[in-house]
Design the sequence.
């Protein structure tokens, strides 16, 4: 497992790629733009192992995420392969530190 703090500068999109590991991104600041939508702060997005994806920052602002993998990380570029339009697993939660509530998060569909 690896945990990293990652920042994408505004307008930077990491085009068609896969990872040999499942991974999650907790959006800390800005908006994470993916092949399935845009996710704001306090959103956790999980990507299955091997999924072809695109992600990065919106054109308006940088995005900072906490990046968590279940195995060693590697990025593999994908050329001429269609991206599956499948919504990743998304969880939206409250600012637990500010509210001092439990770590309950709500799944969206």
Sequence:
């Amino acid at each position: 497992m690896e945990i990293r703090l990652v920042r994408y500068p505004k307008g930077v999109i990491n085009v068609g790629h896969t990872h040999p590991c499942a991974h999650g991104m907790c959006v800390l600041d800005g908006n994470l733009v993916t092949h399935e939508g845009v996710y704001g702060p306090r959103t956790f997005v999980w990507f299955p192992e091997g999924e072809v994806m695109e992600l990065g920052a919106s054109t308006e602002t940088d995005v900072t995420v906490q990046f968590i993998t279940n195995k060693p990380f590697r990025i593999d570029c994908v050329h001429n392969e269609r991206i599956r339009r499948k919504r990743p697993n998304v969880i939206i939660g409250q600012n637990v530190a500010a509210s001092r509530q439990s770590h309950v998060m709500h799944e969206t569909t």
Observations:
- The first strand starts at residue 2 and ends at 8.
- The first helix runs from residue 96 to 99.
